[in-house]
Amino acid sequence: MAKKQFKAESKKLLDLMINSIYTHKEIFLREIISNASDACDKLYYRNLTSGDTGVKKNDFVITVTPDRDARTITVTDNGIGMTKDELESNLGTIARSGSQTFKSEHSGDTKEDRAVDIIGQFGVGFYSAFMVADRVTVLSKAYGSDEAWKWESSGADGYTVTECDKEDSGTEIILHIKEDAEGEDYSHFLEDYTIRNLIKRYSDYIRYPIKMGDETLNTMEPIWKRQKSKVKPEDYNEYYKSKFGDWEDPARVIRTAVEGVSSYTALLFIPSHTPFDYYTRDYEKGLQLYSSGVMIMEKCGELLPDYFNFVKGLVDSQDLSLNISRETLQHDRQLRNIARNLEKKIKRELETFLKEDREGYEKFYSAFGRQLKYGVYDDFGAHKDMLKDLLLFYSNTEKKDVTLAEYVSRMKDDQKFIYYAAGESNEKIDILPQTEFIKAKGYEILYLTDEIDEFALQMMQDYNDKLFKSVASEDMTAEETDAEKEAMKKAEEENKTLLEYMKEVLGERVTEVKLSSRLKSSAACLTAKGGLSLEMEKVLNSMPIDQQIKAERVFELNPDHDVVKVMREAMAEGDSGKEKVKLYTQLLYDQALLLNGMTVDDPAQFSENINRIITGK
């Protein structure tokens, strides 16, 4: 029989199908099996509507048979089969989908229409076989027909259709696998373990059994489609560990099904610990994406915001617009709707987690809290309202992590701000001189020990109209009484000469030297003007880029401390006294740096100054 040419600008289009559309050769088996599943669906639908076939759902089977010696993979189904005209129409015209035509013709709301979910859309999946096969043979016999036909092609040069012998209705596709060449390995597709892995990965939830020999390779019924009452917590845990490579049970399981504008089912897991590569560039977020039980993408990042990137799981939907290869998504309204719904669902689950299992949530937060705080800071604070009630910070009065809502509920009537202090650890923050004034007022302080903490709070600015304020902020006059303000103003006048000289000694290292009411037992401390704190300066300068960021430092003194009295008396002694003040100033400044967890500017000079104090020279 004469060879026929493909009807759609054959060579150029078929080359595109084989070489450009698909990025992973291994998906050829997914496409062939999906076509076989569609063929079974069509015959099943026919029985539902006419009842003349006598075929039951349990009668359908898809068989995969590799033959290493012959270098073939044969996929057989006992579905509806194809006539000669259908073979030529469906396989002779590239990008014509018989499944899509069937789907559009039966898209009603009847029970029978809803019972069948055809997978194929574009009519190009079959041609993915030519990525791994140099010749494809299709033997098909339509249900109810006495004739069988063989379609055969070696690619873009065309195809032949001849009559053949086939006993049963259905379709048999024989892929003649290419020889290994030019660094391409095709032989591994003939190995039993490769076929098992591909079916398990992409086609595990095809609704008909996929057999190799006597072994059924697929699960058929997804765990997310079983009745909730019939799925035990340990079933979810085992599924999570086996599918996502974890050795611990998930902290929470989220299962949701939505019907409406965007219909989908989602099964999500919140891990109990961070993956080893979580805070590296190698970590890739995303949910598995299934279309009618067939896996389309291993990690669909568009379905998760970055601040929930720790969530594992899957989404199964018929409504997403896939691209022609079914490997990637087209960004459409359905995708955005699903992503927004999942975001809200995850947030609600975390809020429930926090409320019902505080200990478990705190363990989760120790693993992923930093990511939530990055989410607050990212995109100029666009997500702060979404995340603010999920945050935890250590409280100096409660001696444990607390929410912002819990802090605000305990605020004193005269308290104007939510106070925080930043440092390397809770223990080091607790001894900071800058905390003394707020502690003396009896106000609660949040201790920030993560490098992102202060950036996140500054981006938030407030929580439920309560402004955040650092205890190391230069301006603390809002919490001073009128008497305290008056006393400080008088002290500033009395010590004006001393303060001006100390500023002269320190030079550009500080913006200002002044007296402070914040200090109770300490002699001096460093604070910062503006939005950049000393702790933020440390964080920014620790980054690989040499930025040399510097906060506007203010050197504050306790007017009631004996050290300040000694310095004031030394100033009255003339030039000899000024030398002492210079020495004391340098030591106090270096001491303040060390208390803030910063390095002294000149360690050798610092050591020498201590020696001078000890020897009195």
Query: What spatial form do the alpha-carbon principal axes imply?
Result: elongated
Low-confidence residue ranges: 95-103, 108-122, 324-328
Strand content: 15-25%
Strands, total number = 22
Structural class: alpha+beta
Q: What strand line-up does the widest sheet have?
A: 5-4-3-6-2-1-7-8
Q: What kind of sheet is the major sheet?
A: 8 strands, mixed
Share of residues in helices: 25-40%
Radius of gyration: 36 Å
Number of distinct helices: 20
The average pLDDT value, as a whole number, equals 87
Distance from first to last alpha carbon:
113 Å
Name a few traits of the molecule.
19% strand, alpha+beta
Topology:
Blueprint: H1 10-21, H2 28-50, E1 62-67, E2 72-77, H3 84-91, H4 98-105, H5 111-115, E3 133-141, E4 148-153, E5 159-164, E6 170-177, H6 192-202, E7 210-212, E8 215-216, H7 233-244, E9 252-258, E10 264-270, E11 287-291, E12 294-300, E13 312-317, H8 333-356, H9 358-377, H10 384-387, E14 393-395, E15 400-402, H11 404-409, E16 418-422, H12 426-430, H13 436-440, E17 445-448, H14 453-460, E18 462-463, E19 466-470, H15 482-494, H16 496-506, E20 512-515, E21 524-529, H17 534-541, E22 552-557, H18 562-571, H19 575-595, H20 603-615
Parallel strand pairs: 1-7, 11-13, 16-17, 16-19, 20-22
Antiparallel strand pairs: 1-2, 2-6, 3-4, 3-6, 4-5, 7-8, 9-10, 10-13, 11-12, 14-15, 14-17, 18-19, 21-22
Helix pairs in contact: 8-9, 9-14, 16-19, 18-19
